Amino acid sequence: MGDDKSGTKRLFGLEGRVAVVTGGSRGLGREMVLAFARHGADVVIASRKLDACEALAEIVRQETGREAMAFACHVGEWAQCEELVDAVYGRFKRMDVLVNNAGMSPLYPSLPEISEALWDKVIGVNLKGPFRLSALAATRMVAGGGGSVINISSIAAVQPTPVELPYGAAKAGLNALTVGLARAFAPAVRVNCIMPGPFLTDISKAWDLDAFAETARRGIPLQRGGEAREIVGAALYLASDASSYTTGAVIKVDGGAAFAPA
User: Fold this and answer.
1) Rounded average pLDDT over 26-39
2) 255 in a domain, yes or no?
3) pLDDT value at position 205?
4) For residue 7, is it within any domain?
5) CA–CA gap between residue 57 and residue 71 (Å, rounded)
6) 261 inside domain
7) Which alpha helices (H) appear in the chain, and where do they start and end?
8) What does the buried/exposed string (b/e) look like for 68-94 if buried means 16 or more CB atoms within 10 Å of the residue's CB?
9) Of 8, 62, 185, 250, which residue is most buried, by most CB within 10 angstroms?
10) Strands 97-100 and 18-22
11) Element (H, E) at 189
C-alpha cells in the first residue's frame, strides 16, 4: 500500500502545530478540539467558562497525550482577545491554527423589541471578536512563517429567518471578512470559512425535535440535521496541508440546506 507518510496521514497531520478554538468546550468546537489533538496538534480551548475548558483539556491530555491549555475569554471584548493571543504565544511560542467558533444567537420576542444591548452582544461575539482575533493572530502567524484561520459562519448568513436576523447579519459579515482577510494575509496565512447548517448539538436540546425532523425531511436534501462529528472533515481539511491551495473559501456543511429548492 506504500508509505502513508506521503499520503493521507501526512496531508491531514497536525504534528508540531498549535490550534486555538474559541467556543471550544462544547458542540462543534469540542469536536474540532478533539480532532486536532488526535491528529497531533497541541490545543488551546477558549470560552467564557473556564471550568468547562479545563474539563475538556484534561480529556485531551488523557486521550491523546497532547498538550492542552484552557483559557477563559469573552471574544466580544477586544482586550480579552489580546490576552488570549498573548497567552498562547507565551506558552507555545506559536499559533498555527485559529478557529473562530464562538457564537451566540439569543431569542427575541419581535424585531422592534430587539434591544441595543442584544444587538451589540450578538455582533460583538459573532463578528467583532473574530475580526480582532484574526487580525492579531494572523499578523503573528505571518511573522512565524504561516498558518490557517478558520471562521465558523452559518447558513443564516445567506438564508436568514426572522428569528435570527442579528445573528445572520453578523455571520454574513464574517463571510465577507473571510474573503478580505484571505487577501490581507496572503500568501503566508490562509483564511477560510465553514458555513454549517443545523447541527444536533447541545443547543438543539431547546428545539422541538419532532417539528425539526419534519422540516428537515421536507427541506434538507440529506433529510436530517448534522451530527457534531460531521464538522471534523472540513475542519481538518482547512487546518492542515490538505488545503494548501485553498483560501478565501466559504464551504457549506449543511446537508444541502442552503440554496436547496423548495
Assistant:
1) 97
2) no
3) 59
4) no
5) 10
6) no
7) 8-12, 27-38, 50-64, 78-92, 116-123, 129-144, 165-185, 209-219, 232-239
8) bbbbbbbbbebebbeebbebbbeebeb
9) 185
10) parallel
11) strand 189-196
| Cα 198 to Cα 177: distance, rounded to the nearest angstrom | 22
Element containing residue 1 per DSSP (H, E):
none
Structural domain boundaries, residue 91: 15-249
167 is catalytic: yes
- Asked if 196 and 151 count as a contact pair (C-beta separation under 8 A), the reply is no
| Mean pLDDT confidence for 68-78 | 97
CATH of the domain at 237: 3.40.50.720
- The answer to whether 166 and 256 are in contact (CB under 8 A) is no
Q: What is the pLDDT of residue 2?
A: 47
Count of domains observed in the chain: 1
Inter-residue contact 55 to 25 (CB < 8 Å):
yes
Number of helices (H) and strands (E) in the chain: give both, helices first.
9, 7
Look at residue 122 and give its three-state secondary structure.
helix
Instruction: Check pLDDT > 80 for residue 242.
Output: yes
CA atoms within 13 A on the CB side of 157: 27
3-class SS of residue 104: coil
* DSSP-based three-state secondary structure for 19: strand
Task: Grade residue 210 by pLDDT with cuts at 50, 70 and 90.
Answer: confident
- The three cell numbers of residue 192 are 477560510
Output the CA torsion sign for 16, 22, 24, 28: negative
Mean pLDDT of 193-202: 88
Q: Is the pLDDT of residue 22 over 90?
A: yes
Residue 257 lies in a domain: no
Residue 23 CA to residue 199 CA, distance in Å, equals 15
